[in-house]
Every structure is written in structure tokens, then in C-alpha cells.
Amino acid sequence: MALQTKTKDEVFEAIDKYNVRFVRIWFTDILGVPKSFAINPNELEGAFTEGMGFDGSSIEGFARIHESDMVAKPDPTTFQLIPWRQQEHAVARMFCDIQNPDGTPYEGDPRYVLKRNMQRLKDKGYSFLVGPELEFFYFKNENSTEILDSGGYFDLTTADNASDLRRDTILALDSMGIDVEYSHHEVAPSQHEIDLRYKDALAMADTVMTYKITVKEIARRYGYHASFMPKPIFGQNGSGMHVHQSLFQGKRNVMFDAGDPFHLSEEGRYYIAGLLKHAPEITAVTNQWVNSYKRLVPGYEAPVYLYYCKEDAIKIRNGISVLDESRCVQCGTCVQSCHYDLIKPEHRHYLITVGGRRGRHPKIGRSLLTVETEDQAMFVVEKIVDWVYRRAWSGRLLSEQLDELHFEKFREEIVKKIPEAKPVQK
Fold first, then answer.
1. Which of 102, 111, 229, 360 is deepest in the core (most CB within 10 A)?
2. Which helix (H) or strand (E) holds 270?
3. 160: pLDDT confidence band, cut at 50, 70 and 90?
4. Domain check: are 361 and 224 in the same one?
């Protein structure tokens, strides 16, 4: 049963009612890697009022050793029971905001960066809604890519283990108050998708992080492994995360214009232009592994162009499309893949938000790169990485969202994983 707590008093009532013995506090580092620590409910009052101190120098991209003290402040509105743990001694989770010892928000906290940009939109009278489509694979174990089924897109498979996994995952998400629109088998064998009902970007960032952990935990309970790796199987479609986006002023969708041939308003065109213009910076954050770029091969429904058009979503899912039915923008290129066993929903949504609202030109189109076969995958990696990171490090989008220290920290960590991303010395 989903909980709807709004205050710390309601959290304590839920703890007593459901006999919660541990509360897990969740957050991410600057690269989006999930972090967590557990506290006894007896310590929760102090956590709400003063926060829980920890060593920030041990978290990637956070404080340096001589300024290592950081504080985690739980958000009572995110309190939920964890359904895959035993219920007689229940475990709950809350997301937290990272603060400096003096109580000010920590500039390197991805959740704070998103909240700050959401506030900027709110000050202009906008609300930003997103609806992601997340793809993933089920494997026999974490050491191989042995599949559980041989189904294809929308296949009605017989009662197999993968169907049970997907069903139980949806039930677990529902118990945590996460609305699922629908689920289905994806194109590749043992590849699945569970689509979430749209909501505001901050709530969705928390939701996507919960989603990925839930998918993995339910699979583990069955003795299998769930992977969000972008391209785990050679010769098969990879996994991505399309993000449907819309801007509202009150109940009015500002991207929709009934009088336009595309039903796309001028503001909507500017928004798309911002995504296209800042695609390198967005890609630098959302695609931090070499494997992310091995998806960029024609014939596997992966992004190989940077463009936008008004077409059927299936035909143009490699770019940015305008969907009449939902009156929103679907971004496939700028958010081209989930990362290998990582989740960066905060980064993903705050960069899309900023990139979209910084659009200046109604129509922008650019060819990214085309290759003919998967044998050229490493050539693709070299070219794409050079294009993405050369633009990302020289652009203003990232440096304006992070102060100089955290921008450098982020760049250092990316170069560790992708040496080709090293900025060119002038």
C-alpha cells in the first residue's frame, strides 16, 4: 500500500503503524551513482531537524578532504516502505537533500541542481512534466548475457520467468505509489520495458531511481540479473530511455498550438532548438561509458542523427519528435541510453530542462554520424566521443549549472572512464 506522507509527523505515524525498524536514506553522487545509508527510527528526529553528517570526501565529486563534512537532510514527502524486504521488521526509504554544515544547499548535489532549475521555471510560470520509457534486459546471472526468453517486440510470451519478473516488478512499484502506464516485451530477446505515468521532473527523478533499484531487486529475488547496460548483446537492439517532455502554464500546454500544421507552438520550437543546440553537453552527462556509444549503429533503432521532425514516433525514434496525441516532445537522441548499472535521473532531467528553455532558434538540424555496420563500432566511439566532449567542455550549459570546482570534478571522473574525452589543451 502506497504511503502519502507530507510531514515528519506523518512519517513517524507510518513508522509506528508498519513497525519500521530501519530507514534507508538515498541520494546520488555527482556522477549519478546511487548512495545509501540506514538509520534507526530513533535517530530520525535528529535527522529531520539537524541532518545526518557524513564524510563527503569519500563520495565522488563531493567535498575535498579538508572540507569533508556534509549533511544529509531527509525529505519526508518521499517516505515509502520497501516491498522486497520482510514486512514484520519493515524497511523504508527516503530521498535526502545534501547540505553544507551551515545548512545551505550543497552545490554539487544533483537533486539540488534540479530543484533550483525547477524553481526557475516556476518563477516564469511554467511546470515541467516528463514521462520516461526505460528499457532493460533480464539475464540468467550477472556474469553472463544468457537470456531468459526469445520474444520480440510486443510478443505475447507464454508463462515464463521473465513475465513473472515484470509482473512482480509492477506490483512492487504500485505498492510504492509509482504509476505504471503499461509494460511490454521489447525488440531484443529478454529485453523488456515498463513505462511510467508522467509527473513533474523532480518527482520523476526520484521515481526513476526507485524504478531501477526495484527492477534489479525483484530480479535478484528470483535468482536472475536485470541490466540497464546500453548494449549488452552484440547484434541485438540496445536499451535506451526516451523522455516525453511537456511544459505547462496552469492547465495549458504551452507546446501545443492548434493552428500550427505540426500543432507545435513557437515556444515548443524554441524548446526543441535548445535540446538540439545543447545535445553534446546533455550527452556528456547521460552517456558516461564507452558502451553507451556502441549503440549508435543504424538498423537497431538507436540514435545516429541529431534532428527533429513531425512523424510517427516509431519511425523517427532516433531523433526528437512531436506527438499530437500527448502534445509533448519526445527526446530520443539527447537521452540516448541508460548507463551501465548506474542511474542519473537528476542529471538527465535537469539538463533537459535547462537545455530546452535555453533554445533560441525555431529550427535546427544537424547530421551527427552514420556508419554502416557494427564492425565499425569502435570508430563510432572515437568520432562521437570527440564530437560530444569537445562541445561539452567548451559549452556553457554544464559550467553554468555547476560551480568551477564541481565542473572540474565531473570532467575528471568522465576522463577516467573515457580517456578520449580529455579536453584539448590550447
1. 111
2. helix 266-277
3. low
4. yes
Please tell me the distance from the alpha carbon of residue 296 to that of residue 328, in angstroms, as a whole number.
25
Top pLDDT among 280 and 82 is at 82
Start-to-end CA distance of the chain, whole Å, equals 58
Residues 91 and 129 grouped into a single domain:
no
Q: What is the pLDDT of residue 287?
A: 78
C-alpha cell at 111: 537533486
Assigned domain for 426 exists: no
Ramachandran angles phi, psi of 130, nearest 5°: -135, 150
Residues 106-115 have a mean pLDDT of 88
CATH number at residue 55: 3.10.20.70
pLDDT (tens digit per residue) in 326-357: 446 665 533 332 222 223 444 444 455 555 55
DSSP 421: G
Q: For residue 327, give the C-alpha cell.
A: 502534445
Q: How far apart are CA 283 and CA 159, in angstroms?
A: 38
Tell me, yes or no, whether 253 and 297 share the same domain: yes
In the numeric block, which cell numbers belong to residue 366?
544537424
Position 196 scores a pLDDT of 93
- Let me know: does 358 contact 400? Beta carbons within 8 Å: no
Report the C-alpha gap between 206 and 211 in whole angstroms: 9
> Measuring CA to CA, which residue among 85, 396, 335, 99 is closest to residue 204?
335
Q: What is the pLDDT of residue 67?
A: 58
CA angle 389, 390, 393 (to 5 degrees): 75
How many C-beta atoms lie closer than 10 Å to residue 36's C-beta?
Answer: 12
Report whether 305 contacts 296 (CB < 8 A): no
Distance CA 268, CA 318 (A): 19
pTM for the complete prediction? 0.83
Residue at a domain's end among 104, 136, 161: 104
Domain-located, residue 152: yes
- Of 104, 125, 151, the residue at which a domain comes to its end is 104
Q: In which band, very low, low, confident or very high, does the pLDDT at 31 lie, cut at 50, 70 and 90?
A: confident
What pLDDT does residue 71 have?
A: 94
